[in-house]
Amino acid sequence: MSHSIFRKDGTAQGVAKQRLIETLAHADKRIINDPYAERFVIGATLIKLLGHKFSVWLSGKFAPGFHEHLISRTRFIDEQVKESASDGFEQYVILGAGYDLRPYRLDLPSSMKVFEVDQMEVQARKRSKLPQNLPNIDNVTYVDIDFNHQSLTEQLLATSFDKNKRTIFTLEGVSQYISKEALASTIKELSKLTQGSSSTFVMSYVNDLIESDPKACFGEGYPRAAERAETIQRLSAKSGEPWVSFYNAEEIEALLSLNGFTVKENRTLADLNDVYFSPAGRSIPEDQIFKLEHFVVAES
Ligand SMILES: C[S@@+](CC[C@H](N)C(=O)[O-])C[C@H]1O[C@@H](n2cnc3c(N)ncnc32)[C@H](O)[C@@H]1O
């Protein structure tokens, strides 16, 4: 496998691209706003020319609901992070941060220290593309890791991370790319890293029905569900970042519970459609619901 920077940040760019597309929507129609996303997307100028509506339509040709699913994931996690900030949490650790710009776009209080954890090459590219003089930049620490081979505890404790402070951890769009052993050991490390204080852990996972019953991962009547599930996996593998791990709700609950976390919420786009898209007049019909991925909130 190539070790070039481009190959390592392909999926991070893919998510940033959907955030850019959403940001192009009219302010009263958009579900999230990410003014920095365009800096990380190859072809951003063309996407801006094509505009929101056309770009969402194009993405729907690849897989209906694909854009809305990624945007609902981002919005759902945005809300968890903002809630923690207003509850007085003092640390935010973004696991597999990619081109997540939450420290700069969510207006987080300066009392909340942020730790962005990702592969060294991705972090380096991100830092080189960030604008100068971002308001919250001094609050952000970049931490290099390979979840498959390195200890989160060691990497975090080598920084100013404080085990005794209330912390929210997010792992967005990452669990499918790392081994089950790596996820289990990362969650085990979270439990040790948060022994001195209460914490929130928000993660997404891909439903293991993708292998046994792909149709169940989409709304009723979703066109060519099995074929699309296969295409998504094939393209991910082709970009050098294959999906290797899938889970079910019981497995995730058991893994979290083993490490002192209680699951509070488990959502998909099917649950969030009426919360985010319907009020914006963008309700997604049942036969375009993409609910392959689940978004979980757990507390310790
Ligand atoms: C789909 S991107 C999601 C990025 C970001 N969380 C978001 O939602 O925009 C997956 C991220 O996981 C990171 N990642 C994948 N495998 C990893 C590993 N073994 N160690 C550290 N990071 C990894 C990638 O570098 C990438 O930034």
TrEMBL record:
One matching Pfam family: LCM
Biological processes per GO annotation: methylation
Keywords: Methyltransferase, S-adenosyl-L-methionine, Transferase
Residues in the signal sequence: none
Molecular-function GO terms, alphabetical: methyltransferase activity
The protein's Enzyme Commission number: 2.1.1.-
Keyword Zinc: no
Taxonomy, superkingdom: Bacteria
Known role: Exhibits S-adenosyl-L-methionine-dependent methyltransferase activity.
Alphabetical list of PANTHER family matching this protein: S-ADENOSYL-L-METHIONINE-DEPENDENT METHYLTRANSFERASE YKTD-RELATED, S-ADENOSYL-L-METHIONINE-DEPENDENT METHYLTRANSFERASES SUPERFAMILY PROTEIN
NCBIfam families with a match to the protein in the record: mthyl_TIGR00027
Identification of the protein by name: S-adenosyl-L-methionine-dependent methyltransferase
